[in-house]
Amino acid sequence: MTLQFDNRFLAALPGDPSQAVGIRQVRGALWSQVLPTAVAAPRTLAVNVPLALQLGLEEDFLQSPAFAEVFGGNALLQGMQPWASNYGGHQFGHWAGQLGDGRAISLGEVVDVHGQHQELQLKGAGPTPYSRHADGRAVLRSSIREFLCSEAMHHLGVPTTRALSLVATGDAVVRDMFYDGHPKAEQGAIVCRVAPSFLRFGHFELPASRDDIPLLRSLLDFTLRTQAPDLAGQGAQGDAEWFGRVCERTALMVAHWMRVGFVHGVMNTDNMSVLGLTIDYGPYGWIDDYDPDWTPNTTDAQGRRYRYGWQPRIAYWNLSRLAMALSPLFESAEPLQAGLERYQLAYAQAEQSLSAGKLGLSQCDARDMELMTELQVLMQSSQADMTRLFRRLGDLPLQTLDASALEGQPTVDAFYAPLDEAARQQWNDWLARYRQRCQADALSPEARQARMRAHNPRYVLRNYLAQQAIDRAEAGDLGGVHRLMEVLQRPYEDQPGAEAFDALRPDWAREKAGCSMLSCSS
Ligand code: AMP
Ligand code: MG
Description:
Blueprint: H1 8-12, E1 31-33, E2 43-47, H2 49-55, H3 59-62, H4 65-71, E3 83-85, E4 88-91, E5 94-98, E6 104-111, E7 117-123, H5 140-156, E8 162-175, E9 184-195, H6 201-209, H7 213-227, H8 236-260, E10 262-263, E11 285-286, H9 311-326, H10 334-359, H11 366-381, H12 386-395, H13 403-406, H14 421-440, H15 445-455, H16 463-474, H17 479-488
Antiparallel strand pairs: 1-3, 2-8, 4-5, 6-7, 7-9, 8-9, 10-11
This protein binds adenosine monophosphate (AMP) and magnesium ion.
Adenosine monophosphate (AMP) binds near residues 99, 136 and 271.
């Protein structure tokens, strides 16, 4: 099996002179050469066939034992030059120093069938110089979550890294899932993820924190050359424009998270991609009953810094950290400030246009945004399921749309608790205003419905659905993972036979571990 590799990151940027194993601070270098550690019995559990073909892999190879060997970390294809990259980050609001790829190992940059570079990266392939106090491994449950969610996001139209494969290692990995002194042996697994680049805000923050301005400069030059060639060699103007684009891309990504009800859970700056891709699927979650204060991450339960409703402002804070890191390359702060303003503008625009899509309006003005806010307040106070509510709002004919049309029947029901009289009244008031607004809009009823169906998914990776698939997979049955993969490939289409995948979250899942609460243990 041959792929076309062009490992630009290694070729262009300084690496760690030491090839020793062992944890260390790595200065003056952006990567360390490191081999995946062999695993006992690699077995392919799932492959993303269209993505594999896009990378230039042959279909026969995907089912072969050789595929499991390569993507389980036991063998290399010609041209692969594994490395772990060096970055820092702000974690939960505090500078954390050097972090780096502690359990991710990049295999190389493939030139895909479209001529695009795609970096292949194994997650859970063993220790690197950046593993700090941990083992470099990943468990099956978190690997399934990353594999399923990155593909679900892709098909929802949310910018994201992709997932090529899920391979069981045959080795046990010990984790204390709730950090409560009960470590347990779990099954190990490795996901191969794919993106044009895995460069994070933290890649820029680390050299800046060490006053290594030449390294910072080289990294930015490399980034422009490879990710924004139209800006390369333009000096300060190109640098500023690049930062502005990072701001805009980040705004768009977060606006899409808000549209689909996705909560990242760990928006540390080491988990923010400069390409504006959703990256590092850990204790993420999906909104069931609408609650802007909700976070799935139990490690963040106290301050809930990374709650759903705060994501737009946290992204801005993170971009401000990136701006700080880049500031030694600028003569004044003004261009960076201008970039941050582009974030605010881009976010407001994206929020307006996505809200228009969600409400089925041709566009949203300030008053329409108020209508959206009122809807959100109502959804929260009456425990409405976000996904079902928006979908039903679009699918029910406007004329018959009242509170009772949204509740009661299992095929329609969008609430976790019965509506009382006051709530029913509030819904009917809101729906009356909404009906009026729709009737005044230029869109026909059919166009309105089509627009809403394209913005409001019917199927998302509900937390409990992922957990059910994981429970089955841990018992050796991959059927749940494959079925979810299938359904989530077409999230906007009604799929006969897939009714169970857009049901309200069952009561048992409300407080169950894995379904609504996740720790960083993975
Ligand atoms: P995260 O919050 O999961 O993005 O991880 C933060 C840092 O911890 C990154 O540098 C990771 O590479 C590292 N890390 C997380 N889990 C492990 C692990 N099991 N082994 C080694 N490093 C890890
Ligand atoms: Mg991370």
